[in-house]
Design brief:
mainly alpha; 2 domains; 14 helices; globular; Fatty_acid_hydroxylase; Sterol_desaturase/TMEM195; membrane
C-alpha cells in the first residue's frame, strides 16, 4: 500500500501546534504554579525541530539509495501492496525502533544524539519537537536497513518511520493519567513520562515507540508511581536554552573524555559504554579535583560493571 507520510505529517502540523497552544493555555489557567511551559524552553524546542528537519531532508537524500541497494540486491520477500504488508511493516519498524531506542540509552555514541530529546526539565507537547540534527551521524538510519532486506521499498520505510515519530508527539504530556487499559498494547503519556524521568527507578525504562508490548516482553517496563513522581531532565543537567549547545554538548564531552583517558579500552568506553560510565567518570574526576586541586585523569583506570557493559 502506497502512502505519502510527508504530506500526512504536513497536514498534521497545525494539529501539533494547536495541541501545544491549547495545552499551554490550559496549564497556565489550571496549574500556573507548576511551570510546565516556559517561553525559552519552548522556543529552544522549536529551533531544535527546525534544525532536525533540515538535516533529515538532506540525510534522506543519501540514505534512501542505501536502502534501495539492499532492497534491489538482498531482499528476502516480495510483498503484495495491501493491509497485510502495511501491518507487517508497521510492527517490524516499531520493534526496530524499540531496539534503536534502547541502544540509544545504552551506547554513548547514540546517546550523544538522543540526549537532546531528554535534556529539558519540562514535559509537555513541545518537548516532542526537541530532536537532534545529529541522528544521521549517530547512525539511526542503520536500524531501519533490515526493513529493506525484508522487502519493503525505501519510500515506505521512510514513511513508516515518520508516522511512528508522528504518533509519539501525543505521549509528551502531563495532562492524562495512567490509561492503564490502553497501555497494555500502546505507548501512553504515563509510560513516556517515566521514560523522560531521571529518578533512579525510572532511568532506562519504557522505550516504546507506538506499541508497549516490547517493553513488557524484554523487561524494560515500569509503571509510573504517584509516590515517586517523575523528575525530568538528564543526570548531568544542561543549563542552557541555546539549541546549538543542546545539540553538541554531549559530542564535545564524549570526544574530550576519549582524548583525556589513557588506554584504548577506556577510550572505547568513553565512546561506546553506557552514559552511566561518563557520569561516574565525571563525578570521580570532580571529586579528585576537589580533593587534590588538580586533574589526574591519565592515572585512572575505569573498570565497568556488568550492567555498564551491556548494550541491550
Amino acid at each position: 500500500m502506497q502512502f505519502d507520510a510527508e504530506l500526512l505529517l504536513l497536514a498534521m502540523a497545525p494539529v501539533f501546534l494547536a495541541c501545544i497552544g491549547w495545552e499551554a493555555w490550559h496549564l497556565h489557567r489550571t496549574r500556573p504554579e507548576a511551570g510546565i511551559y516556559s517561553w525559552r524552553d519552548t522556543l529552544c524546542n522549536a529551533a531544535l525541530a527546525l534544525l532536525q528537519q533540515a538535516a533529515d531532508k538532506l540525510a534522506w537524500l543519501a540514505i534512501i539509495p542505501v536502502y534501495a541497494f539492499f532492497y534491489d540486491h538482498y531482499r528476502l520477500l516480495k510483498w503484495q501492496a495491501g493491509w497485510v504488508s502495511l501491518v507487517v511493516l508497521f510492527v517490524a519498524q516499531d520493534f526496530l525502533y524499540y531496539v534503536f531506542h534502547r541502544c540509544s540509552h545504552r551506547v554513548r555514541w547514540l546517546w550523544a544524539a538522543h540526549v537532546v530529546h531528554h535534556s529539558s526539565e519540562r514535559m509537555n507537547f513541545s518537548t516532542a519537537f526537541r530532536q537532534s540534527l545529529m541522528y544521521p551521524v549517530a547512525g539511526m538510519w542503520l536500524f531501519w536497513t533490515p526493513l529493506a532486506v525484508l522487502g519493503f521499498p525505501p519510500k515506505q520505510i521512510v514513511a513508516i518511520v515518520l508516522i511512528n515519530l508522528g504518533f509519539q508527539f501525543f505521549v509528551h504530556t502531563q495532562l492524562f493519567g495512567s490509561m492503564r487499559w490502553l497501555g497494555y498494547v500502546f505507548n501512553t503519556p504515563s509510560m513516556h513520562r517515566v521514560h523522560h524521568a531521571r529518578n533512579d527507578r525510572y532511568i532506562d525504562r519504557n522505550y516504546a515507540g507506538v506499541l508497549s508490548v516490547w517493553d513488557r516482553l524484554f523487561g524494560s517496563y515500569v509503571d509510573e508511581d504517584p509516590v515517586d513522581p517523575p523528575r525530568y531532565g538528564i543526570v548531568e543537567p544542561l543549563y542552557t536554552y541555546n539549541p546549538l549547545k543542546a545539540t553538541f554538548h554531549e559530542w564535545g564531552s564524549m570526544f574530550a573524555d576519549a582524548a583525556r583517558v589513557s588506554g584504548w579500552r577506556n577510550k572505547a568506553r568513553a565512546l561506546f559504554a553506557p552514559p552511566a560510565w561518563a557520569a561516574a567518570y565525571h563525578a570521580r574526576m570532580a571529586g579528585m579535583n576537589d580533593a587534590a586541586g588538580h586533574s589526574r585523569e591519565d592515572a585512572i583506570v575505569f573498570p565497568t560493571s556488568r550492567e555498564e557493559r551491556e548494550i541491550l
